[in-house]
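Batch job 17 of 40 flagged for manual review because the log was empty.
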Amino acid sequence: MQQAPLPFAITRGAEHTVVYGNSAYWLLAGVANGGAIGAPIADPFIATEGRALTVILDRAFRQGIEILDERIETSTERASGWQCSVWPVIAEDRRVEALGIQIRESSPRDGARELQRQVAEQMLLGALRERGLADDAEAARRRAAFLAEAGRLLAESVDQSTTLVALTKLALPALGAWCIVDILEEGDAIHRLSIYHPDPEKQKLAHELEATWFPEPDDPFGAPAMLSVPRTLAINDDIEATLAASAHSPYNLNILHQLGIGSLLTVPLVARKRLLGAITFVSAQPGLSHSAEDVHLAEDIAARGALALDNAQVYDLALVLQRSAETANRAKTAFLGAMSHELRTPLNAIGGYIDLLDMGLRGPVTEKQHADFARVRTNQQHLALLITEILTFVRVGSGRVNYAVGDINGCDALGHAIELIEPLFGQKGLVFKGISGESSSVARADPERVTQILVNLLSNAIKFTPPGKQVDLRLDRVDQMLQISVLDEGEGIEPSFLPHVFERLRQADASSKRSGLGLGLAIARHIIDLHHGEIHAESEGLGKGARFTVTLPVIEHAQAVREQSATSIA
């Protein structure tokens, strides 16, 4: 493994201490060979990369599962991303004692790269069979290099601006030709993107020409010639007359002569049956026409360039739509917050006047009226709770919730939550046998927020569990995490809905039993994420109950997370 080309390492224990790394791994980590043995694997990397890697390793270590080719986004310029694979080493007692890890830099997906290689090979073989070995082997090598460079440039481009720059560089001259790149804009308006010449001195002339030479609708080559029927167009005769008619000024024609005028080859940029522009190759010498291989190569390059440009345009459109959606979401959130504040004032007034009437301050009240007032009060309180839930959601989404993090005992936190809703167990006729499992672990979290989450989970368990059934609470310590589980024998959850349980404004059905706005679990997940914990739901299906588990770092692990965060900030 030491000389294997892919980075490979072995870690031991829940802290993922490095016990082995091959040469490729130490190179990726940026430390001397063996320089980080005995330290957590995340230490050599920057904070974002280290945390993402630790999350993957924690999951493999806790669950004892293989993880293959999981992507890690990087914030450095050294890689476009990582692919991480993890294999757990299982001891005889079925515990995970070590992890084998492979991390490799991702290269942007470019399915055309293999095709490029095959085209280059075919060109080389044909040259060896049909022409002189030395000259045509060199020509094939140049074409292969051209294709490889084209693939690399397009693979590096993401948004439209970088793709247009890449497309200009992509139109590198084949066999000494220079080139013109035209792009279609909205309404079929043509924009001359660039003129490129392989000679640096002549490239200066090309820049001068770009400022004065613009495409006209009646030009016989370039994008204007593609508007009616996009096709490959070769002009080998009367080149002087063609350029004289389309130069549009003696100044431009003079520069064209200095650049070198030969045969013209225009290939369209077409993606999804839509014309995006055109590339025109101009031979540097008169009388030098493009061969069939040159035409095929130009069409291949144009096809790849058009695909990259189309993808970039779609990407830019997606960014615009995303920003619009984010703006709309912020406006919606602000509206919800303002509306909720405005609604609470009359609701509080309603509650106050109901209390006055119920106390008889406005006259005698009968028993039936007392019952009616109680129903009104109950609905007023329920509506106030819904508004409070909306306000909490708005604050959480905007980051305005304050957290007072401290040390909390898992058993005490559950006990406090039970005290708040214990009467509901009796009212519903449920079986509750207390808290089982580990009771001494101390987590690092905001006690008030944890209580809010536990009350929400317990309330849901009580709401959806029929009388006579059981609700259980359990505490477990798994590695460096404290698990708090709420189990019920209630309605259960459809397996297909489980991935959506924690999405805001999502509910399994719209029946009257499921009151609320579907925000409680979404708020709980957001709060738990800020505590570096996890929350997940399990159910075998409808009628088979459900289990909701909250996972929080125990105090030792939370301290390590804080120290790592402080180091990265420093």
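Reviewer: the log was empty due to a logging misconfiguration, but the result itself is present. The radius of gyration is 34 Å. Unflagging and moving on to job 18.
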